[in-house]
């Protein structure tokens, strides 16, 4: 994949007090810079129209993370942890990070990583049981790592702690820099996959399916625990055909080692009124993911698939998974 080069950098002055802040300013010394007060409130960005959504993502925002609140979670981790970035340079049309119109979907990097990792380590050490921390729920850390090297830094600084595990999902295949690390089995990487046609039409700027499959095999070979997210499942007209093809391809191309114990998560797409507005203006030629025949409202401008339709999808996917991945667990389908 082409490495991201920002068009401009918006930065908070205090980032220069941190080694990573200095490093990034040096790395991008040729890129135009604009000083900002607070990464949460960039006046210039707030005024932009929806059609500029994709262009806004060409910028990089660098600041410090001020709130470090862990949120309890009961899926594949114990806590969702705000970590070193938020937002993303890619533009999946359903991305749930698209909050508040176009105000916070661009990539923001937070340079106070020492503080954030320390809080994770302290919480892990204090807990009675082994905790797993989801560090990738606000961004894509494999993508972020190509800019900051933060994942390499995190794994190296976490591996010798007494307790705790880290996990994160990704849609990117640039995993080579973490393969040689001595991670001591403390990190689980969950690769998100979708049929190639859906990646092309909906997940703009992410890695191809082939690259993601190869990345899963490489990560497993390097000793990482791996999971596979079939997510989000999007019920386009020929969804059965597409998802069956995907499951067969995974079954044929994932290594025996992966197939031995990888676990799956399956998530149906949710969508929102905000997505509809941004996407119709930012990507006028793209597919419309809102389908009023299949979807229903679930409060606050959110849409989800109707329960009978979702059920049909779930039954179909469970059957196919049972056939092609009889030995692998599906942690949940939501
Ligand atoms: S890769 Fe993930 S974070 Fe980035 S736009 Fe897609 S869904 Fe959002």
Keywords:
334 residues; pyruvate-formate lyase- activating enzyme; globular; single chain; five-stranded mixed beta sheet; 21% strand; binds iron/sulfur cluster; 12 helices; 18 strands; alpha/beta; eight-stranded mixed beta sheet
Summarize the structure in words.
By secondary structure, this protein is α/β, with parallel strands linked by helices. The protein has one domain (9-333): pyruvate-formate lyase- activating enzyme. The chain has twelve helices and 18 strands. The strands form four sheets. It has an eight-stranded mixed sheet with strand order 4-5-9-10-11-13-14-18, with helices on one face. Strands 2-1-3-8-6 form a five-stranded mixed sheet, covered by helices on one side. Strand 1 (9-12), helix 1 (19-27) and strand 2 form a beta-alpha-beta unit. The protein is globular, with a radius of gyration of 20 Å. Iron/sulfur cluster binds at residues 88, 90-92, 95, 97, 139-140, 171, 203, 206.
Detail the topology: elements first, then pairings.
Blueprint: E1 9-12, H1 19-27, E2 33-36, H2 43-46, H3 53-56, E3 60-63, E4 71-72, E5 79-80, E6 85-86, E7 91-92, E8 107-110, H4 113-126, E9 132-134, H5 141-148, H6 150-158, E10 165-170, E11 187-193, H7 196-202, E12 203-204, H8 209-221, E13 225-233, H9 239-253, H10 256-261, E14 263-268, E15 270-272, H11 273-282, E16 295-297, E17 302-305, H12 307-324, E18 330-333
Parallel strand pairs: 1-2, 1-3, 3-8, 5-9, 9-10, 10-11, 11-13, 13-14, 14-18
Antiparallel strand pairs: 4-5, 6-8, 7-12, 15-17, 16-17
Bound molecules: iron/sulfur cluster (SF4).
Residues 88, 90-92, 95, 97, 139-140, 171, 203, 206 line the site of iron/sulfur cluster.
